[in-house]
Amino acid sequence: MSIHSLSANEVTDPVTQARIDLAAALRLAVLHELEEGIDNHFTVTVPGHEDRYLTLPFGLHWSEARASNLIVFDESGQTLEGTGFVELSAHCIHTPIHRITGARVVMHTHQTWALALNMLKNNRFQRVKLPSLCVIVLLTTITMLALLFPWWRVSAWRV
Prior knowledge:
By secondary structure, the protein is α+β, with helices and mostly antiparallel strands. The protein is built from 5 helices and 5 strands, in the order H-E-E-E-E-H-E-H-H-H. It has helices at 14-31, 88-101, 112-119, 130-148, 150-155, and strands at 41-45, 52-55, 71-74, 79-81, 105-108. The chain has a 5-stranded antiparallel sheet, with helices on both faces. The longest helix is centred in the last third of the chain and has 19 residues, at 130-148. Residues 152-159 have low confidence and may be disordered.
């Protein structure tokens, strides 16, 4: 599979652009084998609405993501636009994160190595110093956001 740039007219509608970016992020996650299982979710706050979120509806694989098949759901988990419904854990995990932190993008995956570790008889992590872990999580999150959402790379660091 190869990736290449497409030349297209500039999208001016921020909701349409958010849909395109989210679908692309989901498909790129598949390319990088981050789509293990069905309880992985990416959500984006709908531009102009603090209480509405875009996500892929339950039952579709990330490789099937298109801007046109994403749904919009609200704080109560009700689908407001599109066909299908939000998976319960996506609603219960992502909605409070968006609301409490103000995050515009929340990504939640289960990598195969984490699932494999969980299946072991003695599935315990070794002790890790918290500052080291925090740096790893922060850098991983920043890198993912910067790679998957180019507009975030520019706007997130403005003061």
